[in-house]
């Protein structure tokens, strides 16, 4: 069922109700709702910036957006240019490289390309998205935290050597996750080039003056835009055509807080737990058990956040946010944020895991509404459970040397406590 319009009822300022028009099989229906949660995603409208590429209209080969790429077979033995070094571009290029004669990715600003398989074979986010890392990022001097970040991003291979190096490597924009791409570049079946300056009927001329000749196909893996055609645009983009949503969820200018946008915010962490917490808070606001601040305070918060986003992510229209800081913020509104200091005093084993281990969604089920009695156990067993599906051939008697990492953790705690002591004294 298509939602074709969402409009305030005439008595919205007192009831907060919305009139919704839906369409199915040519039939329109109208219904009134007390609240609306918009969960329409942001990978629906392809961004196809042909105007940025002079000569593309003269190009004689095939040309389409990554959304229309379905399978590699038809490009067997062909020469393919992929524009854009995001996850779509890299997935498509790596797949095509097994059948195509040559694949080139052109990149405007480079990207960090991470392996999903990280230290000791654990998934990247289990090792990387931790409270400890976030604490360091937010508290170390910027120069040190930037240096540390770039060092981690270059840990598997030096991006400079593979033509992937981002122009501004300290920006925390979304990395690409692709285990295969570095190997395909190493084999020579994929090459990385700068942005395309100009197209001719059959070739692309890059900004460094080099040319990719006899191209059969150009794939624009240039991302997506978001739009809410069923809604008055000013509700979500209330200023300068920018998304102005309090905490990325609530339109601040509404007389009643009965609309929430779920899933627009994008972070380095997993999308589902983020939207889960957004929905938990939104339902409390809609029910009236949580109250939003004044319009002025919400607008000030949006402005302050925008400043920080520019620093970390570098784009004014960004919908990106820091995972743990954002999750904690949402959780604190509903009383589901874990109190780390108190945990260290009452349950040090769990505290260690919560602070140094992955910020798994169970952390937001330890306390508050929606508390789950199994959360503690789930956190303490998450490392073993993550590897269980792979351990299909178990070799007995293999000893693990985890003493060093334990020592490192205790050292880090000692340093933190000393730092806290020095701050308080
Ligand atoms: C190629 C690709 C690969 C991806 N791979 C991964 C991955 O491996 N891991 C990962 O975590 N994320 C991945 N993502 C991101 C992932 O798609 C999102 O995180 C996730 O789908 C967001 O879920 P959502 O429910 O918010 O939006 P969506 O999954 O986009 O769902 C929105 C739904 O709303 C519907 N809708 C929109 N407008 C209307 C309307 N007017 N009326 C009625 N219905 C409407 C849409 O049809 C759609 O069904 C990928 C994205 C892309 C594009
Ligand atoms: N396997 C997966 O997990 C997977 C697969 C596909 C997609 N996804 C997700 O889906 C979302 C969309 O991914 P995506 O790769 O389609 O889009 P994306 O992440 O937005 O990447 C778009 C790419 O196109 C480039 N680009 C945009 N406009 C351009 C222009 N005018 N000229 C030159 N280059 C331009 C960008 O360059 P700049 O960096 O310079 O802006 C960027 O490299 C992401 O969140 C992604 O994680 C995930």
TrEMBL record:
Gene Ontology MF terms: flavin adenine dinucleotide binding; hypotaurine monooxygenase activity; N,N-dimethylaniline monooxygenase activity; NADP binding
Pfam families to which the protein is assigned, alphabetical: FMO-like (PF00743)
GO-annotated cellular components: endoplasmic reticulum membrane
Gene giving rise to this polypeptide: LOC103746364
Keywords in alphabetical order: Endoplasmic reticulum, FAD, Flavoprotein, Membrane, Microsome, Monooxygenase, NADP, Oxidoreductase, Transmembrane, Transmembrane helix
Subcellular localization: Endoplasmic reticulum membrane; Microsome membrane
Gene Ontology biological process terms in this record: taurine biosynthetic process
Superkingdom of origin: Eukaryota
TM ranges: 403-424
Stated name of the protein: Flavin-containing monooxygenase
Oxidoreductase as UniProt keyword: yes
């Amino acid at each position: 069922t298509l939602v074709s319009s969402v409009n305030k009822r005439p008595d919205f300022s007192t009831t907060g109700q919305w009139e919704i028009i839906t369409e199915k099989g040519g039939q329109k229906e109208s219904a009134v709702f007390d609240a609306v949660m918009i969960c329409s995603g942001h990978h629906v409208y392809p961004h196809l910036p042909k105007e940025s590429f002079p000569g593309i209209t003269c190009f004689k080969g095939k040309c389409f957006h990554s959304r229309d790429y379905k399978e590699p077979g038809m490009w067997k033995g062909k020469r393919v240019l992929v524009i854009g070094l995001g996850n779509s571009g890299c997935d498509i290029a790596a797949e095509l490289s097994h059948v195509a004669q040559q694949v080139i990715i052109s990149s405007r600003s480079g990207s960090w390309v991470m392996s999903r398989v990280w230290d000791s074979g654990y998934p990247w986010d289990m090792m990387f998205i931790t409270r400890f890392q976030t604490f360091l990022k937010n508290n170390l001097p910027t120069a040190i935290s930037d240096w540390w970040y770039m060092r981690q991003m270059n840990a598997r291979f030096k991006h400079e050597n593979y033509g992937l190096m981002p122009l501004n490597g300290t920006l925390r924009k979304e990395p690409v996750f692709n285990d295969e791409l570095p190997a395909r570049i190493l084999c020579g079946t994929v090459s990385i080039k700068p942005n395309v300056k100009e197209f001719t009927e059959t070739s692309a001329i890059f900004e460094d003056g080099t040319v990719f000749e006899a191209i059969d196909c150009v794939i624009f893996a240039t991302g997506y835009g978001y739009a809410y055609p069923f809604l008055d645009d000013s509700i979500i983009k209330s200023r300068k055509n920018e998304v102005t949503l309090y905490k990325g969820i609530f339109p601040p200018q509404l007389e009643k807080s009965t609309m929430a946008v779920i899933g627009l915010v994008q972070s380095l962490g997993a999308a589902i737990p983020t939207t889960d917490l957004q929905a938990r808070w939104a339902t409390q606001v809609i029910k009236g058990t949580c109250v939003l601040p004044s319009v002025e305070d919400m607008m000030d918060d949006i402005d302050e956040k925008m400043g920080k986003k520019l620093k970390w992510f570098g784009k004014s229209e960004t919908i990106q946010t820091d995972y743990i800081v954002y999750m904690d913020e949402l959780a604190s509104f509903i009383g589901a944020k874990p109190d780390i200091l108190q945990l260290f005093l009452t349950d040090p084993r769990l505290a260690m895991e919560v602070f140094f281990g992955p910020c798994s969604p169970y952390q937001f089920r330890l306390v508050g509404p929606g508390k789950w009695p199994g959360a503690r156990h789930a956190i303490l067993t998450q490392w073993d459970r993550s590897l269980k599906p792979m351990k299909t051939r178990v070799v007995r008697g293999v000893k693990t040397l985890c003493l060093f990492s334990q020592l490192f953790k205790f050292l880090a705690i000692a340093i933190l406590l000393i730092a806290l002591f020095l701050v308080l004294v």
